[in-house]
Amino acid sequence: MARPKTPILSKPAIRAAALAVIDRDGLEKLSMRKLAQELDVRAASLYSHYGNKDELLTEISEEVTADIDVSGFDQDWREGLARWSRSYREALTRHPNLLPVAAAGPGRREEALRRADAVHGGLVSAGWPPKQATMIGASAKYLIVGAATQSFARGFDDDVRVYRDRYPNLTQAHRLPEHASEIDDASFELALTAFLDGLEGLFAQVTSGENEGSGEA
């Protein structure tokens, strides 16, 4: 008799299956036991590839965020921030259920630390004081993660009766979900542009010596 086929496990296959569970059921539903069932193997088989779920999630996060672009700082700090912000948001919105992991601090994640180093270094090299470079990175991340966390437009009900009479300033609110992607993208661009424009003014002060009290990181 032919020997029964045993599924061949690999790290990429495990990551793909785990991400599929996260996308479908949510991050909190992923467990090594459930993942083993998805792959039709014993849970113990997974531990020869990943010591625990956190280790697996770290590699999934690294993979999902691999396309975040920090190359623009070789042109100027504004272009660098714009590229980083847009590509970071795009990476997070592709797998919203993974956001708590993918948007977490770099910790000891090598690729996340490399990107943080590139952003901070790019800003300092351009002339920003280290303390302000740190604050700019943090502020940009607040904007990016906030934009990726939920959709503003999809937060409204699509039933016109909800707004009629009682909310006269929201007479078109029922149409917002229909245009959610367009509204969310345009709103992020508006916020990002306003943020960068504001930094331009502050940078002029910094480079002219008007903000000498900025200090070190």
Automatic annotation (TrEMBL):
<dbReference type="GO" id="GO:0045892">
    <property type="term" value="P:negative regulation of DNA-templated transcription"/>
</dbReference>
<dbReference type="InterPro" id="IPR004111">
    <property type="entry name" value="Repressor_TetR_C"/>
</dbReference>
<dbReference type="GO" id="GO:0046677">
    <property type="term" value="P:response to antibiotic"/>
</dbReference>
<dbReference type="InterPro" id="IPR001647">
    <property type="entry name" value="HTH_TetR"/>
</dbReference>
<keyword id="KW-0678">Repressor</keyword>
<dbReference type="Pfam" id="PF00440">
    <property type="entry name" value="TetR_N"/>
</dbReference>
<dbReference type="InterPro" id="IPR009057">
    <property type="entry name" value="Homeodomain-like_sf"/>
</dbReference>
<dbReference type="GO" id="GO:0000976">
    <property type="term" value="F:transcription cis-regulatory region binding"/>
</dbReference>
<dbReference type="GO" id="GO:0003700">
    <property type="term" value="F:DNA-binding transcription factor activity"/>
</dbReference>
<feature type="DNA-binding region" description="H-T-H motif">
    <location>
        <begin position="31"/>
        <end position="50"/>
    </location>
</feature>
<dbReference type="InterPro" id="IPR050109">
    <property type="entry name" value="HTH-type_TetR-like_transc_reg"/>
</dbReference>
<dbReference type="InterPro" id="IPR003012">
    <property type="entry name" value="Tet_transcr_reg_TetR"/>
</dbReference>
<dbReference type="Pfam" id="PF02909">
    <property type="entry name" value="TetR_C_1"/>
</dbReference>
<protein>
    <recommendedName>
        <fullName>HTH tetR-type domain-containing protein</fullName>
    </recommendedName>
</protein>
<keyword id="KW-0804">Transcription</keyword>
<feature type="domain" description="HTH tetR-type">
    <location>
        <begin position="8"/>
        <end position="68"/>
    </location>
</feature>
<keyword id="KW-0238">DNA-binding</keyword>
<keyword id="KW-0805">Transcription regulation</keyword>
<dbReference type="InterPro" id="IPR036271">
    <property type="entry name" value="Tet_transcr_reg_TetR-rel_C_sf"/>
</dbReference>
